[in-house]
Every structure is written in C-alpha cells, then in structure tokens.
Amino acid sequence: MWDYSVTLIATDSSAYRLLPLRFMRMNSGHDRDILLTSETGEYMHITDPQLQALCRFEIKPDTPFYKDLLARHFIYEQGGHDPVPEMTAQYRSRKDFLFQGPALHLFVVTLRCNHTCQYCQVSRAPLGGSGHDLSEADALAAVDRLFESNAYALTVEFQGGEPLLAFERVRQIVEWVSERNVVEQRDIQFVITTTLHHLTDEILDFAKQHRIQFSTSLDGPALLHNANRPTPSRDSYERTVKGIEWVRERLGHNAVSALTTLTSRSLEQPKAIIDEYVSHGFSSISLRPLSPYGFASKSAHRLDYPIARYLAFYKEALAYLLEINQQGVYLSESYASLLLKNILTPFSSGYVDLRSPAGAGTAALVYNYDGYVYPSDEARMLLEMGEDGLRLGTVHQPLPELLASPVMQALLASGVAEALPGCSDCAFVPYCGADPVEHYARQGDPVGHRAFSSFCKKNMGLIKHLFGLLQDGDDDVQRVLLSWLNRRSYADVRFPGYGG
Ligand code: SF4
C-alpha cells in the first residue's frame, strides 16, 4: 500500500479531533517524508514521529505544529472554532466547475485527412472519402445544444480528421454561433485544431474577423515529426511550420499554439523536442503520453509504451525545461502547470482529465460527424475502434436528455475519484481526477483497477515528482514553477514563499 486514510477516535481528554485526512510516504530521503493532505487540498510535509503523535492525539496545543494543523484544517477543537464553514467554502472553490454545464464543445466537422498517422489510423478517412462530413442539419442542431449549456465561457473547437477540409461547415457554424451570441452574450472562443496544411488567405481573413485561434500538432524536429505524421509528399513538418509562420504573420504570434504527441520514438529525444518548441517561440509545450485510443490494437502493441518509460522521459524533459527557463526562455509544460494549480492554489485547473467528478460529458461534449454526441474525444475514438457503447445520443436530443443518458449515469457512477477503490485512500486525490473513459478503454471497466492503471501510474509519478521539486528544489527551480503557475516571466517571480 502507498498510503492510508485515518479514522481514529479521540479520548475525552484529547485537546483535538481529527478532520478527514490522508497521508502518503513519499520516499524522498527527506526527514519530513510523509505528505499529509486534507479533504480540501491543503498539505504539509511531516515526519514519521509527528504522524504517530498526531494519530495518538499527543500533539501539544502550544506547539507551532499544532497551530499549523489547526490552521490547515487537519484537526479541530471541540467547542472551539467551527472549521466546517471555512472547509465548505474551500471545497466549493475547488469543485467550482460543478456549477456550470459543459464549456468545451468539439465539432468533428469531417473525418477526412491527408495524413496517415499510425496512432490515428482508424479515426480518419481518405481525402476524397464521402459520408464522413458533419451535415448542415446536424451542425445546426449541435449549435442549439451548445447554447443549452449554462456555461458563460464557451469554447467551440473544430476537430477532425482535418477540419480545414470542411471549412465551409466551420464557417457556417462560426457564423451561426456568432449570430446567436448577439442575444446570448456569452464569452466564446473559437479554436481550429489543424495541421495548417490547408490554410488559405480566405481562411485567415475569416479567422481574423472572428478571432479564431489555431492549435496545431508539432511532434518535434523534422525527422521525428515526419516519421510520426506521414503524408504522401513527406513534408508534413515543412508545411506545418510554414502554416505557423503564416498564421503569426496575419493574426499575431499568439494566435497559434502547438501540441505534441509522444510516440515511442519521441521518448528518445526530449531535448530535441523542447529545442524545437524554443526555436519556434512557443511559450508552452504539452508532453502528454499517447492515448490508447484511435489506433487498431495491432498498432497499439508497437506504438504504446510502458508508463515508466514515459515518466523517465518526462523527468528528463522537465529538468531541461527548468534549466532553460532559468536562462531566460519562457516555456512551460502545460500538464505540470495544471497540476501546480491544483496543488498550490485553492482552485481546480478545471482540466477535463483532472476533474472529480469526471469531466467527460459534464465539461465537454463532442458532436461527431455522424450526428452522434459523445462525452469526450476519446469516447468517440473508441467508436472508430468498433465500440459505440459510450454514445450519449444524437445532436437532435436536448442537452438535459443527453446528460441524463444511461452512459452519463455510468460514467458519473465511476467518475468520483474520492469514492473509487485506490483513489479514496490516496493522498493525491484532491489534485488528481477520475477518468472512466480511459479505464474503460484500457481495462474494459470504467471504474478500473488503480494498481494496473496507466492513468494512475502517470498521475502518481508526476504529482510525486512535483511535490519533490516543491520540497527539495532550490529557489531557482521553485521560481520557475511559480512563473508557470502565474504565467509570469522567471525574472518577475522573486519569492517562492510556500512549502510546508
Ligand atoms: S488515480 Fe490519482 S488519486 Fe487515484 S490512486 Fe492514482 S494518483 Fe491517487
């Protein structure tokens, strides 16, 4: 076992009572090797004797340790200050995302694509393929669903295949949404996820008019990118880089961001991938592992890799990122930034995969090209693998009906991390999430078994590593991490000023 939760009974003479808490041995080599976390996400690093004394109700009220435990809601005094209102407010802040409906709406306007990426081979259709585009009637109905969400800030993201191959549908949807929004008055952000290979002046003019952002894929240097993303002309990298420059020239430097997909090949070159992002002036890089979706199982064997290999890659990459950030380059790692927000602030990053209750369906909806609605992009990719079990319904059903569907009920029943076997006792649960779709994809069961879960191994490894850096990293490392958290330059962050 990695950790234990505590439910102990105090005697009448005890000065304090315990509030719900969890703890974990970090194997840090540090004296204060036990991480103590509260239900609301506050944390302290303590020693073994301190933990034992805490559980035996032996902490003396006049000690700084006692006062810290009291202030951070690990203990309370009977008849003393009532901690419940403060904890309720903290819990409400951390779970604030529950008060709004789906904010991310993905429109899969076409499955057609000019690439033949191995990790995506079953979720694309040939360039000239028919029957793989979202119809006008379905697109219009999906726009109705979008505005049925009560979320004030909405992101409308166009996905594929390659969405620019169905640009007329993209244009229609943007125009319908913009027209409706004159009355609705929401804060709407449009994003097109694209290779940028099919850009035209007309597309860029339209994007400028509607302040559309572009998100592209850049897997690393030319050799790696072209190996990961084959096209008939073998120039995927060159065309994407040209597209990045073109978007920046017309819409500004920050109008395009990039994501990397890490194949087994990528894990051998963390520095080269990061150098590539530095050379193109990106301010963020996402070092996400390959998803187990979207490729046939025969390829999965070749493309997938053990999570331990990914973690070794990630740590090396993060060390390099910390080094170059100290030299004045601002390049944050996006997953670390999200986890830092969960750990160091009272708020949740809101990131779909790091939510409990799970974000699939509650935070995001996918309107597929065939008119069906899915709770996440991963769920619709399972469809392309022959699994249609995670469908919520069709775009013509009202949002409340989709969100009350049996699939949503099953996902929510297995999507509360605090109630899942393994997670319920884990000290990292305030910062982690539940991902029933991934567990369904990997283990055939949305609850899943954490001992064999890649999701758990990844988050366990990354959260532990970040806590290690926060506890033991020098001031310069901590300044970089804070600069990512606050999105400020390294030079602007003077005082780390946290820890425990
Ligand atoms: S998934 Fe997250 S919360 Fe659950 S056991 Fe793993 S690290 Fe802990």
UniProtKB/TrEMBL annotation:
Tell me the Pfam families matching this sequence.
Answer: Radical_SAM
Name the coenzymes or cofactors required: [4Fe-4S] cluster
- Tell me which SUPFAM superfamilies the record gives: Radical SAM enzymes
Ordered alphabetically, the record's keywords are: Iron, Iron-sulfur, Metal-binding, Oxidoreductase, S-adenosyl-L-methionine
**Record's CDD domains?**
Radical_SAM (cd01335)
NCBIfam families from the xrefs? rSAM_paired_1 (TIGR03978)
Q: What is this protein called?
A: Radical SAM protein
